[in-house]
User: Fold this.
Amino acid sequence: MSESIRARGVIAREPNQPGVVEEFNVPRPGPGEALVKILASGVCHTDLSAKNGVFGTDYFPFLLGHEGSGIVEEVGPDVTNVKAGDYVILAWRAPCGLCRFCQVGQPHLCAASLNATQKMTTDDGQVLTPILGIGTFCTHTLVHSRQCVPVADGLPPEQMSLIGCGVMTGVGAALYSANVQPGQSVAVIGAGGVGDSIIMGAKLAGATTIIAVDVDPRKLEWAKEFGATHAVNPRDGDPVAAIKAITGGHGVNASFEAVGKPETIETAIWCRDLAGTCVIVGVAGQEAKIDLPVAKFFDLGGALRVSWYGDCLPTRDFPLLASWYAQGQLDLDRVVTRVISLDESEAAFHAMEAGETLRSVIRL
Assistant:
């Protein structure tokens, strides 16, 4: 058996340059590792940010992609959680079980998430950085076996791939980060793929007033299809005033920011009712700042918190969301705007920036 296999994937070698489909080398799995044949991969904004150098330039070249579903082709020694032939969704967080958070029963905050030890390499010998430790814009990838979460056979790979990040992040933000309760009101600022997943999560939790906020009328219409009961366009006037008008002058029980801009964070903070919860989901740039009137914030009360990955546990939540999809409770079909080939990933980034898609999904 050879020491590595040949794979094909989208590699970003320099900031702000298009990713290029290249062949690269994937080591055979060692202890605790798994070789996965990718079936589908979502095109997420995080991949675009990495490609454009937002996370720094020391990590290039990148193997793009981090929302993936596939088939385990081979496992290394000491792997017990999956076997060859398993249909899996890949998770970018795989709790180690040993760090300070895992040891006190908070594995969703794991500070030493597991990744493959061996490195994938380009033909000219450069070590690839797989996005979020996975890399899914490719035919094959090497991951830690505990990044593989089995789900039921027969579910469509395109829809399952999205559970791996964007959908889980949104649904988890509603269910776990904000703990939305039946009958509550929520506002979701930013009605893209993650925002619509928050809307679906709020609906699953029993929220009865779900307000979508976006400057794109098309996205507001899409949001209504996912369960938003009201739509607010900030270009029509003060969004905080509009949200309070919808909620009897009070504001919402929970607000979610899914854009990552100072002005949308401020909207999320101030549109809450007394003691309401504000959850930051969008990833802001390194220079982003807000001016927070502390006394006003104190008088409003409540909680301001960040949600990482929807505070999920992939081994618990990926099969749960897959089951909800199979039961018709989670509308992932509508999230998949376009199905594309590996060679069309750059065009998918442009469509994302233009607001033409919720998610393009690469089918391998």
Q: What stands out?
A: The domain at 4-164+331-363 is CATH 3.90.180.10 (Quinone Oxidoreductase; Chain A, domain 1). The radius of gyration is 20 Å. The mean pLDDT is 97.
